[in-house]
Amino acid sequence: METMAFLGCSRGLGRAVTLEMDQQGHLEQALLCARKQESLSTLATELKCDSEIEVLDFSQRPSVEILLAALRTHRPQRIFYFAGGGPYGLFASKAWKDHLWALQVSFLTPSEVLHRLLSDQQFDFVKQIIFIGSRIADSRPDPMASSYASAKHGLKGLVESLQGEDLGVDLRFFRPGYMNTDLLPKNAGPRTQGTSEVLEPQNVAKDFVKWALDPSGASILDIGA
Question: Is-above-0.90 flag for pTM?
Fold first, then answer.
């Protein structure tokens, strides 16, 4: 039984993993962080374990300091960062603030949080950190999702590079394929054209939990096409 922090857990894969960890009996306490108070409160009522809520907007840099303070208080051994997303459509048709949001949430905030966790001895209680990539967007072009793909390319490069350093912490990267969440637009090709399998978050969550809790698990895990 452990304390774990779930960052960006109010919907999609983050929510599914939180519930799966709890249902399998692996949680003593959960720190739940996301942007929407109502969604976090609903999730907390579904958990059997004790939980604490921290309402944070990962697109806003001040949230990093609030998050770090919460981590120091609750001392989770495992930290999972699920937050991410970005505008869907032609790059030039979207406002720059929308692209900046994607870069902040999907790359800059997780990068800064990771740097602080690794560089500050106050966080020596952290034994594992896992970030979420994308088999689709983090290593090849993803037209109509350019800023999201750029952020995920950067995060993948950062994590893979750091995995070659002596960190003293289990740093991993999880790369699912297309998933049936509201982050995949209704008009996206995998939904309308059947060009690729669309995975159910509940099933992906089972794979995530099994892998994350396996001390010999691979540093990078790919799920789906």
Answer: yes
